[in-house]
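Checklist before submission:
- one chain only
- standard amino acids only
- sequence pasted in full

Submission:
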Amino acid sequence: MTIKREKLNSRSITLSMEAPTTLSLPWKTRIFLSLFNTVTYAATRSDGTVNRRLLNFFDLRIPPESKPINGVKTYDVVVDPTRNLWFRVFVPTEDAIEDAPLIFYFHGGGFAFFAPNVKPYDVVCRRMARKVAAVVVSVDYRLAPEYRYPVQHDDCFEVMKFVDVEENRLKWLPENVNVSRCFLAGDSAGGNIAHHLAQRSCEFNFQLLKVIGVVAIQPFFGGEERTNSEKEHEGNPILSLSKTDWYWNVFMPAGEGYNRDHPIINVSGPKAMDISKMDFPATMVFVGGFDLLQDWQKRYYEWLKKSGKEAYMVEYPNMCHGFYAFPELPESEQLMSDVKDFVHMVLKKTTN
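Returned file contents:
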């Protein structure tokens, strides 16, 4: 498989590969995806509730480790025990640098599943902290359908405000972290959160924290329209149209007449916020060629450019939704390298 980097213009870079016609994954990955699909379909009820007991049976929770594992130590910080709002800090212990960037990471799962301490996200954030040489704060936000929009976005923003307080930063973050070199990153639903919190940050007066970049990994966007990719990749792993519809239905407040063209879902659609006059940070968008959400993600990237913002897109034509969570895939490791390159490029620009 050939890989090439093509500089499209001064503001955008696309990584592309020869596109296959069928999805090819290792047997280990296929087995996990099959199990994941079986469990999540069984846990999502038609009445809009979730069988948490079933999910907890399959969830492997990883405790924080003060002793470094693969060059990264972790610890948990409670922000508000009354709503179980907390985050996990990932600190690289090898080749520590001064003024280390801070990455807020928001996990995926359709706003309804997962947490920072489930094994896939503990591994993802550990890899990111080590690869990028950044301190990663992975947020545990409350989940739908028990808690609906805007709770998820509000919880994550509350953690950002918590870290922005000098007393909290000195107490809970390493001395070498620089919160004015901050990135918002997330996958799937977390990519949605990362975008909207970047937007919200443009209108909020932080004391110390400054968001200078967004990493949107296969962000979960949508709309009333059924796009070509949604129809063409309906049968691919992890996501289906029925599943995405279920996620949106249990995420949005019940009985208030919302549809999928709400700007929290269709960020670049007819009701999109005008960000052209905002100091919106540089954004990297990751897209998979077998992800049914890819048309929405590409529209997001184009919308950012049309709004006059610095935007980059990386495509993996032979990958499905969620591929980044599988370290055995070469593309997963390549994604981490691309995140590192993007972060360091933005840091270099901000220091020049």
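Reviewer check: The beta strands are 3-9, 12-17, 72-80, 85-92, 100-106, 135-140, 177-187, 211-217, 282-288, 311-316.
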